[in-house]
Design goal:
mainly alpha, 7 helices
């Protein structure tokens, strides 16, 4: 391998390492925000939290729309953004729903956040036909969850002392399951297409 090839290889490795470590850095930011809850004023804590929780959105859209494929750094960026977005959605659910009365509709901010997440997943899948099932299924789950918490008849009290409404617990688990289901269906479709090509 000559000097030019070595330089090109090193230029490819460095971004891949950086994108691979990006989710770790984001996770530490999130943990820092959670641990500093008692040390920050309300507006500062809320603003910082929103900034951290929203960060996976431009990250995922950049990986989907702008980064070259097929490259390792692109897949690492996309996977890290997805993992961060899903954890962000979980934290958002806990943040909004644990502080709400389980017998009433959830705060409107929760619905806005989850509808926005569904739109982001759809936008990220648009340029990637090979991701439309994997992103579309959880996008549908986000939209259903966002609407369900605004239906009073579905929020009929907590279960076994939990602060979450029964419907919230069920739908949150369904959403997590849909994320896995979307990935499995996408892989199954890819394998089926590959088998037909042979």
């Amino acid at each position: 391998m000559n000097t030019t090839q070595q330089t090109a290889a090193s230029r490819g490795v460095a971004p891949a390492i950086a994108w691979g470590l990006a989710p770790v850095g984001w996770f530490f930011l999130l943990m820092g925000w959670l641990f500093m809850d008692a040390d920050l004023s309300g507006p500062v804590q809320t603003g910082l939290g929103i900034a951290i929780l929203v960060l996976p959105v431009p990250w995922l859209l950049w990986a989907s729309w702008r980064m070259p494929r097929p490259q390792v750094r692109t897949y690492l960026a996309e996977g890290g953004a997805l993992a961060a977005l899903l954890l962000s959605l979980f934290v958002t659910a806990v943040y909004f729903l644990l502080g709400a009365d389980p017998t009433e509709t959830a705060p409107l901010g929760f619905t806005v956040a989850y509808v926005a997440a569904a739109a982001v997943l759809i936008a990220a899948a648009w340029p990637l036909p090979g991701r439309r099932i994997a992103y579309g299924v959880p996008a549908l789950g986000c939209a259903i969850f966002a609407i369900s918490v605004q239906v009073p008849q579905w929020r009929n009290g907590a279960h076994m002392g939990s602060k979450l409404a029964i419907a919230d617990e069920v739908l949150l688990n369904i959403l997590l399951g849909e994320i896995v289901l979307g990935a499995v269906l996408q892989i199954a479709r890819w394998l089926l297409g590959k088998r037909r090509a042979v």
